[in-house]
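Lab notebook, bench 4. The sequencing result for the construct came back, and we need a structural model before the next group meeting so we can plan mutations. Quick request posted to the team channel:

Model the 3D structure of this chain.
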Amino acid sequence: MNKKYIVCLTDAERRELVEVIAKLKGTSQKVKRAHILLKADADGPH
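Done. Here's the predicted structure in token form:
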């Protein structure tokens, strides 16, 4: 499957998303989107 968008997060953005997931901060939709962004990050460990 071809990628439509390439996501490149900064360290600060990555930390903020991890914090949202760890604390389950916000709605379930926000947490799910945080997971998706972290997995789609081109420069990240995943």
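The mean pLDDT is 88.
Will bring this to the meeting.
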